[in-house]
Design brief:
By secondary structure, the protein is mainly α.
């Protein structure tokens, strides 16, 4: 995806077509994660999409936009902590740390792109990072609300091991994709020359829906 298939509509169709395409073959992301998390990934990683709870996770932030990169780190860290039901201190540094840990794990995966098999040293490093990343999951898993990832996994009968693995996987996926999307969103009005229009008309920066989007 992105190299052989570049049309975004076709990419979306492929990613949502679990009947004809799989993430579990050699070289696929499911194969990569199975080497780090265990063979249970093959049972739960692929399949039809589930309903999104994204609107409930999106809130308006009063934080002034002085540093887009740092703001992305903090917001992504907060989003993942909320999604996973993690109990973290309220200061921004705690969420920068969550983001940084996910980023370290993502860099390991990117550094292994030349081979479909992860070297033992990379697997060892990944397991250490995952243990740090999911250190709060066992406590939160027991009583997490049903509308959080941990609560859904518990009610679906997933084990703590499987839930911790999914938590680590989502942390990496969201760390890279959401932060990159935020940076591109900031860059887009500058690249198109529309930033002055948005500054003069701030009401256009917010949606009119009742979902809390901002």
């Amino acid at each position: 995806m992105g190299w052989l298939v570049t049309d975004p509509v076709v990419v979306r169709q492929v990613l949502n077509d679990a009947a004809h395409f799989t993430l579990l073959g050699e070289g696929g992301v499911g194969h990569l994660w199975a080497q780090v998390l265990g063979d249970y990934v093959y049972r739960i990683f692929d399949g039809p999409a589930t309903p999104t709870c994204a609107p409930a996770l999106v809130t308006c932030s009063p934080t002034p936009l002085r540093d887009a990169a740092d703001l992305a780190r903090v917001l992504v860290g907060r989003m993942m902590a909320d999604l996973l039901g993690l109990d973290l201190p309220p200061d921004d540094d705690a969420y920068r740390s969550v983001f940084g840990t996910g980023e370290r794990l993502a860099r390991l995966a990117l550094g292994s792109a030349a081979s479909t098999e992860l070297p033992p040293d990379v697997i060892r490093q990944a397991k250490v990072i995952i243990a740090d990343l999911t250190r709060n999951v066992p406590t939160a898993f027991a009583d997490a609300p049903a509308d959080t990832l941990l609560g859904r996994c518990r009610e679906l009968g997933l084990s703590l091991e499987e839930t911790s693995g999914l938590a680590a996987l989502l942390m990496v996926a969201v760390t890279e994709t959401a932060a990159t999307a935020m940076a591109h969103t900031v860059a887009l009005p500058h690249d198109t020359g529309q930033q002055r229009h948005l500054i003069d008309h701030p009401e256009r920066c917010r949606t009119r829906s009742a979902t809390g989007y901002g």
